[in-house]
Amino acid sequence: MSAAEADWTSAVGLLAAYDEVVLACHVGPDGDALGSMLALGIALRDRGTKVRASFGSEPFEVPAAYTGLPGLDLLVPVAQIPEAPGLLVIFDTGSIDRLGALADRVPAAADVLVIDHHVSNTRFGTVNLVDVDAAATAVVVVELLDRLGLPLTAEIAAPVYTGLVTDTGSFKYAGTTPAVHELAARLLATGIRHDLISRDIWDNASFGYVQLLGAACARAVLEPAAVAGLGLVWTTVTDADLTATGLALSDVEGVIDVVRTAREAEVAAVLKHDPADGWLKVSTRSKGAVDVGAVCGSLGGGGHRFAAGFTSGDDIDGTLDQLRAALAAAPHLPV
Ligand code: 5GP
Ligand code: MN
To answer: Mean pLDDT over residues 10-19, rounded?
Structure first.
């Protein structure tokens, strides 16, 4: 469902009332989180607003796929974000804990505008623009720009396109509606180099990543009986993998995209060791017959119906046992 008309009015009112805003998105930002945030950030700066944007990841680094985006100069480390912002705008973030080191700014801010499309969104803003039917948070941002009467320049279109292609898997996933393609056409008409944007996102691996991917795929396990007979394929990314290749956790998000292509399994999972805290960061995907968002929700995480995750303080065996049990109990959806 789209956001209510009253919420749009409140959101437009908030952005008109402040001449200084703080923007934030979830830790380990993906193309939609970062793209949505930069797009609105550029538009607000162009109209004369003071904009500071950040995300609560340690270390504070923009993933390589997004280092060519316009608006990165709006980014400042968490330490430079005021402790009690006036207006805090939060992108692509379903719950406060996903803000990491910026989570404490939410209760401290005078106004909090949440812009998102996660079904699991907990509506933690004073105003919530949550459209669970939107293919990406970036789609909600464009509607907001239109309602604010701000122009969609090529500089803004590039991060919007980044969010759109990231969250639709290059226009492959369910939810890629005619309106998504119409928006893509509008973005391309601004003159953006969509080919270079896509290359930066999809064809931009280091050689170390190719080797890590090979190692992770080589030890993948197929469990045909799991998920009540629909099948599970899973693998791990260990500390040793990251150390050997010099990669960060944010560099290995794409491993799941390869593992999930195994047709023998309805559900795919990648368990990644987070060197920062020793916890496991679990990514899950389903082909459409299982709501992994609900499954991960029951394990303390969340996400979308067919792409979700959770974090676990347990070891690999214990975490897998919990995941197997939750998947075995999950209802099967009509595909
Ligand atoms: P990924 O597997 O790519 O990290 O995440 C897939 C989806 O699940 C994203 O939409 C992300 O927001 C959500 N997600 C991943 N990990 C977590 C988590 O630990 N908690 C919650 N609430 N959502 C998560
Ligand atoms: Mn998103």
So the answer is: 98
Find out whether the beta carbon of 303 lies less than 6 Å from any atom of ligand 1. Answer: yes
The C-alpha atoms of residue 281 and residue 332 are separated, in whole angstroms, by 25
Report yes or no: 284 and 302 within 8 Å, Cβ to Cβ.
no
DSSP secondary structure, 119-150, as one string: TT----SSEEEE-TT-SSHHHHHHHHHHHHT-
**Residue 43 tokens, joined:** 């538009």
Distance 117 CA to ligand 1 centre (A): 13
**pLDDT tens digits, one per residue of 256-311:** 999 999 999 999 999 999 998 999 999 999 999 999 999 999 999 999 999 999 99
DSSP strand pairing (232-237 vs 221-223): antiparallel
Model pTM score: 0.91
Residue 323 CA, ligand 2 centroid: distance in Å: 23
Full set of structural domains in the chain with CATH: 5-202 (3.90.1640.10), 207-329 (3.10.310.30)
Asked whether 297 lines ligand 1 (CB < 6 A), one says no
CA 277 to chain centre: 21
In this predicted structure, the answer to whether residue 3 has a pLDDT above a threshold of 80 is yes
What does the alpha-carbon distance between residue 78 and residue 58 come to, in Å, rounded to a whole number? 10
pLDDT reported for residue 174:
86
